[in-house]
Write a structure and sequence with these properties.
alpha/beta; globular; 6-stranded parallel β-sheet
């Protein structure tokens, strides 16, 4: 039952930051008055209303906006990495995490689309994680091949998201507020944050952040984990968000989480400890499959002694963990028995950056598919 309990807590957190909740909680239409977070817009006083968006959650957020605003939407352009059709908006499926020809095409189409807006038009821009790879216009003199090589090297280097996006902005003609420079109309940016501290200069490499348009963070890791904490409160002696800013290597994170588990295990008969953030990992040669969450789970398995009462889930809120189709991985007491049965050596899989193969062999991987949202990672520790 431990896997089911962990997955339930994961889904409680996840659903709070999925498009349906995010949009329903922040956009309302009553007759001709559209409320966007804390501002009321009289649709009779504008010429045309548009919706634009880029990121992992852009498609699902746009779909929910269409459900509310419907035929009052004149047009718009959405870039995501999912497939699907929208009723009033053009949708383009780009790539992630690699920058490709599709990213260049998406950027050109988006720039052309926003450039057509007039002064008395109004727009909502939906920004979420993944936007950095999905739209790109490299600076003059830098070819796509050179840009791709630089991006690929950075992605596997172990560099944190803040540094990664800073470099991306410096070699781009659409990031760092440069997309916003092309817009004449008024509008608002609704942000689903996938970075620690919700830094607007970092999220999606800040395509709309030129100081002119107000940004609202409507979803983040903290909002998600607060919902999970609320759910766990009546079920465990202690329910606690330990941190939402876990930002260290998977090796350091496994030590930190293990220390917290030991500390709370000594004091309480039952608990739910919730961690959020984004660890880093250096991909070693060997062609292994895995990601930062599965590697963290593998390190926690090696770090901790078997405990009948404690179970752990490390998972990415976007549904895809690194170079694999998994979302993350579970650990409980029974996994140690399964390792013995199958004569597996966890250390070998760790050394080969092959955590996904390890957890799949044991049926301890979590695979949800693309979730349509992204607020970094959740690490859930339960003691029953």
């Amino acid at each position: 039952m431990s896997k089911e309990k962990l997955e339930k807590v994961f889904n409680i957190a996840l659903n709070k930051v999925k498009a349906k909740s995010l949009i329903k909680d922040n956009i309302f239409l009553e007759k001709d008055i559209l409320t966007v977070v804390d501002e009321k817009i009289d649709l009779n006083k504008i010429d045309n209303f548009y919706i634009f968006g880029v990121g992992k959650a852009a498609f699902s957020m746009a779909k929910e906006c269409e459900n509310i605003i419907d035929k009052r939407i004149k047009d718009g352009f959405i870039v995501s990495y999912t497939k699907g059709k929208l009723n009033f908006l053009e949708h383009f499926t780009s790539t992630h995490p690699e920058v490709t020809k599709k990213s260049i095409k998406a950027a050109k189409k988006l720039l052309d689309s926003v450039s057509k807006l007039k002064k008395n038009d109004y727009f909502i821009f939906l920004l979420s994680g993944g936007a950095s790879a999905m739209i790109e216009k490299p600076i003059k003199g830098l070819s796509l091949e050179e840009f791709t090589k630089a991006s690929s090297a950075l992605l596997t280097s172990g560099i944190d998201i803040k540094a990664l996006n800073t470099i991306r902005k410096s070699i781009s003609n659409i990031k760092g507020g440069k997309l916003a420079d092309a817009i004449k109309a008024e509008g608002k940016v609704l942000v689903l944050s996938d970075v620690i501290g919700d830094d607007l200069n970092i999220i999606g490499s800040a395509p709309m952040n030129n100081g002119r348009f107000k940004h609202y963070v409507i979803g983040n890791n903290k909002i998600a984990l607060k919902e999970a904490e609320k759910y766990c409160k009546n079920k465990y002696k202690v329910s606690k968000i330990v941190t939402t800013s876990l930002q260290m290597s998977s090796k350091e994170a496994s030590c930190y989480i293990s220390e917290k588990i030991e500390e709370y295990d000594k004091k309480y008969k039952s608990f739910a400890l919730l961690f959020g953030g984004e660890t880093t990992t250096i991909v070693k040669k060997g062609g292994g499959y895995g990601g930062r969450n599965q590697e963290l789970a593998l390190r926690l398995l090696l770090e901790n002694k078997p405990n009948k009462k404690i179970s752990i889930l490390c998972a990415g809120s976007d549904g895809i963990d690194g170079r694999s189709d998994a979302t993350g991985a579970f650990i409980d007491f029974k996994i140690y028995q399964e390792i013995e049965k199958k004569s597996l050596n966890p250390k070998v899989y760790l050394d080969n950056s092959d955590s996904n193969t390890f957890f799949k062999l044991l049926n301890y991987d979590l695979t949800t598919g693309i979730t349509g949202t992204n607020v970094m990672d959740f690490i859930i520790v339960l003691k029953d």
